[in-house]
């Protein structure tokens, strides 16, 4: 239930088109719905302007299905992240109308198409192997309603590949800079653009890379002022941060 | 040299009030000025909308004075962070018109008062001991031109202290949430507000706190979607990130 | 052999109903029974009021069966934790009367139903994925004889989900607060209730979460005074700690 | 303001001895008092049965004095932990009636003597150098009203030193086991007693001891079921945990 | 080739029973034999009194077979550690006369029975799951010629299980104390006996146990003077250290 | 496209044998070719004298094939590192003329044989299990055109195995010293030779070895002046570093 | 009280030269003496053959004096390690007959000269800066009664400095190998000698050396079989380990 | 004694100008001179082409003076690194002709001016605060005889500051790239030049920077092929590595 649908409902009540009882029933789930093993935060869309997103990885298919049905039952779009191909196959059987995007590992079910929002986000990666994290961010942003510009494999070891994108990046409202290995990309991007830069370290690398801790430390200690960081491989978090930033734009 | 002053200069050239030669001389320092031991990025104000800020801690007083004079000589405001009281005393003797703020440890020299900018930032701390980091953020924001709302000692162990500020926080455009110890504050704040939340871990704590690594990890692994993180004690970085976010607001 | 059964035996000896020889034989196993590869601590029930619990994970099925038979042979209830479904299948064939609880991964064999004990324990989780750890704690408590109140998916990012449980928690004697990700839940719970709070970090998370080290550090550095911590995923340990605390209650 | 004083006040109102206005004024500070840089949680005593304790280490003397005066002004006892001798000297000049205990580094001001509470706590250390942490715990417990039994230098390398205390420990309601170096003490104590054992790692040690992380890990991974852990050197936290545990005892 | 066989060969030369040429040929392999991918140190037995032992884990079956044949060809006994059951099956087909011990994961081929050596070694474990490491140590010691006394599952949480072994341990010349979880066993053993104590941390545990780093730190920071430590799970290293210690005994 | 082929092309243009249009077409790909998911740096060979090498491990077979075809289409030799046997099988079907070297896990496709370059590189390993990393380095060097001398299993525990190679090493221009376990080899080699020594830690080891961090730390803190280090298992990086060093030799 | 003095006392009782009462009084202190803040283990000398040694670093001068007097009062030699020069000055005033050795930082008071014991220990260091740790080991060994051979600054970067000592080391019964920086020395020494090698990492180094963790890891993961390790800078522990090893020698 | 002086001496012997006895005396110190606490490696200059350099930090002034005199006595130039200003003052009094360079913290005594060697080294820093490490490298290179080009404060956050130096860097034979904070500089430099790049992480930074571990990890996991790394703040090591690389150049 997002703000638009809430207003619609209340207008209908005011106009006598919907009875108080029915409106109450519709709103009863708020602030959350208790499934026993999960409490679904239906009014997050209302409170924060982004839908409740389900982190699929640690949940069983049965848990996901139950949560998904509760969300869809309220008329909200469904977004499940970190769904393995195997789990996706099981879920697609249970959830009519759902679709699975293999590169982002996102399973979604769009009850209604997301309304377009102001603000374009550039999603840039250092390497080819960082693309799944980038696609997670891009797909989440698409479902929220933002335009996305993708620029992949722009690592700083071949600087011209990044410098060529300078004008493109400068024209965006937020840049999400994604890098594994040593994670130097956001430092350089942060110096090239004036808009907010959200850095995402990835687990792509080996040895001293420590599963992504090395680029994470790189990004947190950046000499590029004002670059902010989210958790390793957290494309979803970067997208939501971008949506929070752009929420005030018209 | 910020955008306003640049435009003024170019208008003057267009109007014949300033000769091309003089304008060239004024702009010659761009893109940076080489002091031998430092390259001052005078046009960062132009490129990114925030002044070049000097990290005072690892520099000698002599280095700071030289850099400060080069900045002031171009008509820019000066902002030096992490200046110890001892070092401040030495610098105040050398830099006429400078002032030192002990709680934020910032030394500044305002050639002209900062122009007010749209966007209010809430600076919230979990404890009393996190205040120096908060003041660093607040003072940097003030010098950039943003309004700041301070709410200190709102840690989650006494939740009512934070919940009382809910309306205040909801009315701001960005929240900077600062916490040492276990660093849980930004997770809770992230659930209360819809605007961007910048989390700053601090080095206040002991034992398993690991000099701030524990709250840093807490903040990076937050279950509050879209909360972003900067380095430990990096009040300055949080302020610049807020300024980048608010740059697009009118 | 617990205290009640010991007293019963000794009374029977005093009353002449059991010969000294038979009593000796019954007690001979004390203080422990040596199986060669394991020394079973039969009198722990006597000494500490909780049965000897077998950590199933690193043991072979053959080892578990041998230990289980020795425990049951003395008339004690059996409790094996961290049993994988595969291993459980093998054990159920060998141990008549045993039952396996998939969500807690506990295999138990109740020779006699556990006597009810004073003291109710609330088991609270931050997320849905923390439930297996919670169920391990709850099942161990049930077998010791304590009442358990479950409240799952109450993470601090949607604070109202937790605040709604405030009265329930306040009515309990001990709270076990279980959280993965950033582990902020016990800090907030610790501020809401006056009873002992046992924090359990879980391995649910990724990246900077470090397999549970991040929430563990969070909980150890909590600003909520008097919150205590057990090892990552150690639902069993939290339950025994609760039982130790409640042992003095009548 | 603790529960007893609250009831007294309300009785006086009921009896007409105190006007509603005066009672309101007395209660107005609740739930907390805002000093600008600190929010003092006066009703924690009410909520949790333990007084608000000030962590002295990271605060300036001026901050401590202001907080102390606000606490004392409400008739509550004052307890400041981790006060260095230098800072103590400054505070004793400002706070009439305060006393400083050098071995526990606690500064206290007892407006009224703490009422005795049921429950005795054993405070045991592995070495001589762990005594300051033990004294912090013991002094906090004394000010809350619990009896304390001290047993110091009982490390496991000379096991007879610990085994001699077995009967003493068995007679207590809670054991706080404090150890630096390898931190093995709580594992052994946990096997000797049936009551709750709170383990406190200390920063006493060197090399692989890692400032207390080694004994902390030791204690968290203990094979002694039900031993719980607090942060390194956190004698205060252990004492509050013990007080929470004993709160239900009569 | 060990010292006894060398002396025998030289005596035969002196007696004219073996020609210089044949002796030279026999000794030619010294100091090592180059297989291209491996250099086998045949005279280590001579230099150090222990046979060259092959670490089987990271090597391919083909590499092990080639090395094994070179060792056996010189008349030395073969000892391969850390051989998985699968790899063992393949090796047993290729190496006539070899035998595989599943609990220690050692594959051996005894050309001649090991000569008995002075000195008995106690191998003690804290838990049942530490047995594979203990068996690795015990089997290596057996093949070197030392008597071994096994005492398993003597963890410090049930101290009587260890104290019962005090006389047995006191009668041995070296104690190898093996423990996972918190690794407290060697600290206690070190206080009970006067002989050398070699501590072996194991990877048995979870969470804060960090794959064995926690007990390793425990053992290195022990307050039991003179306890020495080898790498995690390194039963082999502990056995060789014991053999070095006992080498001087008659 | 390397420098030789570039000069040839330009000479042909100068001689009229190739039209400007054709030359332009040939050079058009510079500075990189955009495949959407990857930007291939064709002129790296020109800029740095080494071909673009593809890190195969984190890429899908489809991505590798697409990149490989783009490289080969320009007439460059192809070199893909860290290709698993399974992936290799798939790639060999798609890429005519490719060959796979199992011990180095390198897949290559030589359009033209590499031209010999001045400078011999010694590749030395401490153990047999370090050979795959060594072969990666050796194979990359061979494809660049350098002579390679292999010396394997020369660990410092049997020093004579290394000292025997002293003259061989002294005759080389660069030594790549590769070691897992404790990683002491480069320290000793660094003292034996005067030429550059590139140290490569490997992931061969267990326990305190920490996946290669231990030998990496060993090598970085070496007392052998001038030894330099690359990432764990990074045979490729060591080879390129050697090639950079030898680039100036004639 | 060591074994010799005990036998002497009992013989005197048997001969009627000492009354039972006097003997009882002399032995009453056993097994330990309780000073309140310390429990002195007087019969450790009896149990383990080495005197009780006081770790001076974390104790106050007053604590050391009290413990020292209790030890000397029983006729035992006193040995205090890690005494800073400042603390030593204070102690020398209080303890008649004590002497302080600045290089080992040991304060000792020899009631009677240590009896010579069989077994010579080589103490070898990699660098000049490791000498204080070496001297701590050497001085402890001297006070126990063992001969010590010192060989300093034999690091592996200049291998000939170590190889020159090969015969000397081979003639010793135990080698203590001490190294900071990368800690490679014990690996090489372990391959040169057949006797026990005790490795001591030191805190001499910087950067990736991590306060001694790097050489500690090096030593624990050594490929030199049978090398054992003690804590960083723990010269004392190495000496006691050597004494334990040599205890069985005649 | 370097190669030139050795040849000169031998020529003089051949010519009869120097007697064998005198030559023997001159060479007697080889291979090292034993001062008891130090073994000076006089022929390292011969073996490796670089003088023995003394690491001043962990040594006492008396030790440095003794070593210095032994080096100068043989006619070699003296180079002591990491000398604090205080220590320098003491040393300058003792060592005639010595000079101290405060920015590099190097104390040197040039018996004869260093002969010029082929090869220019660029020393580049990311920030102003990295200069002391850079100066250590530059001064060591100067004393070995190489030309040095300094480029300071070229961090990647203001990329134009670095790109401006591209031609300068391309004209050098080796680049030493020094950076604290996130350490991204060498990754970018590695992509700009074809010559060897030696990366030096520095301890300049705070928080997640971990005393230099963060930039060290960054540099080791660089995506810029062939960049090599030395220890944190190890300007000296980088210089010697550069000298090893350039040794083969004419």
Could you give the topology of this structure?
8 copies of one chain form a homooctamer.
Chain A: H1 3-14, H2 20-27, E1 33-34, E2 39-40, H3 44-48, E3 54-55, H4 61-73, E4 78-81, H5 85-94, E5 99-101, E6 106-109, E7 120-125, H6 131-144, E8 147-151, H7 159-163, H8 166-170, E9 174-179, H9 185-192, E10 197-201, H10 213-220, E11 228-229, H11 235-246
Parallel strand pairs in A: 3-4, 7-8, 7-9, 9-10, 10-11
Antiparallel strand pairs in A: 1-2, 4-6, 5-6
Structural commentary:
Eight copies of one chain form a homooctamer. By secondary structure, chain A is α/β, with parallel strands linked by helices. Chain A folds into two domains: 3-8 and 27-109, no CATH class; 120-249, Rossmann fold (3-Layer(aba) Sandwich). Chain A has helices at 3-14, 20-27, 44-48, 61-73, 85-94, 131-144, 159-163, 166-170, 185-192, 213-220, 235-246; strands spanning 33-34, 39-40, 54-55, 78-81, 99-101, 106-109, 120-125, 147-151, 174-179, 197-201, 228-229. The first copy, chain A, has a five-stranded parallel β-sheet, sandwiched between helices. Chain A has a four-stranded mixed β-sheet with strand order 3-4-6-5, with helices on both faces. A two-stranded antiparallel sheet of chain A has the order 1-2. In chain A, helix 4 (61-73) links the parallel strand 3 and strand 4 (78-81). Chain A is globular. The two termini of chain A are 21 Å apart. The mean pLDDT of chain A is 88. The B-C interface holds B 126-127, 155-159, 181-184, 187-188, 190-192, 205, 207-210, 213-225 and C 126-127, 155-159, 181-184, 187-188, 190-192, 205, 207-210, 213-225.
